[in-house]
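S1.2 Input.
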Amino acid sequence: MDLNLRGRTALVTGASAGIGAGVARVLAHEGVRLALVARRGAALAQLAAQLADSHGLAPVVVAADVTEPNQVKRLAAEAAAALGPIDILVNCAGGARPTQQHAPDADWDEAFALNFSAARRLTQAVLPSMQARGWGRVVNISGSMEPRSLNAATAAKAALHLWAKGLSCEVAAQGVTVNTIAPGRIHSEQILEKLHPTEDSRRAFIARHIPIGYFGEPEDIGHLVAFLASPQARYITGAVIPVDGGMHHFAH
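S1.3 Output.
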């Protein structure tokens, strides 16, 4: 299927690895012109070189910390200066933050800065041009809303869900859609190095919780991002869509 994305512009955060990199690869395959954002500039440059070799389009690389408000303004301006108005924003930057019951405010503030405020600020930065042109796509990468333990990132992602739903109502009539994807277990640094660092732990989790029988790949998220970004998805907005292989949360 031709998703009619060739020539569109996209800004992808958290693009140096994992889901963000997978999203970038899929969008590049669709002919989207990319601005890639993350803190790890060297990893971004390596990915950009790979995409330029494979698809003939050299992405713009912007090394920045999305938790810093001033850097959000800078990266949005740099991306727009290089690509023109941003058509598609994919807020991938985020990370789990297991939290103790009596964790200090600083821990909670950091989790919200990364998993909620960064997406909100960056969306606010690119939204006016989308509204002015009558077309835009915002896709947020979130997480499960059925936690097994206390995690400050989960609370931040819950805020992301409801903020995105409210925003989708405000901008729908202006041709802008706002959707959220909730990944399950996807092969990424966070999953493979922190949450399930051994093959045995991965197999045990899959056997108990994932009916499809395996962890997903970053491109599994990327394909849905590409569809949601396309004109074909014009009537989908305000949604939270799980991509998790049918993962059970409390069944076992």
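S1.4 Remarks. The first strand starts at residue 9 and ends at 12.
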